[in-house]
Please model this.
Amino acid sequence: EKIKRNEEEKSHLARKRAEAARISAEIRADREMQAARRPPPESKAAPPAKVLVRLRYDVDGQKGRKPVELEGTPSTISFFHLLTAAEEMFKVPASRIVLRPADESKFPVEPKDEALPSFSEFASIEAFPNLETLGLRNGQELFLTVNPVEGGPGSAMIEGDPLPAAEGSSASHNAPGAALPVEPPTPVPTPTPVRPPPRVSPSAPAAPASQAPGSGAQYSDVERMKYIWRSLEDQKLALTRARDAREAKEVERVRASPETARLAGLLLWSAGELET
Model:
């Protein structure tokens, strides 16, 4: 009986071990099946590279420092992006912004005499160079000031400020015994005939726009429209100033004319006549 009892215990233990092995195998198979059904973990994308530019600004009497972060690298970020970011930050037109790199050989740092190109020096948005071409790097420090007179296409038509000339001519006109200069009449420009634009075949491919060498920046349609709008505003401002200068010059020419002085003597009362 003792031998029989021992054999039963051994068989019972063997059955328990076999049952435990079966359960472990089923658990392992279920885990492998669940792992196979589970989607692979998504690899986390690396954060986009950014370029930090430190601006020391002097705008409307306010001075300080502000950082500007742009997504990309110095070889892929255009100078146009930096100007538009400064325009949105300081609410100043990009054509009036003047940027000068910091002279790091001096302490404290001072702006260099040579400024970076202005907004109006580029004929198209593709002509803007990237930051690497201009020698700018990540962490670059720039000095930002605002030009009081906006530059733009057509600003060369304005020759001098008409206000000092108007003040000087009026003073000489009011001086007693001063000789009145006679200016020749302003020549009337000959109108240029308007020619229709040449016809472009619909099948002909459009010529690619000229791009600045070394510029790997990409521009969206919104950025292109911003550039076109800013260029039109600059041209409108330059034409308005040229018109005001021409009008002021014409007014001064009429005031300095001897005929105007003669008519003023006939129509206006002098100080002695008013006393009598």
User: Anything to note?
Assistant: The beta strands are 50-59, 62-71, 97-103, 110-111, 140-146. The longest strand covers residues 50-59. The chain has a mean pLDDT of 76.
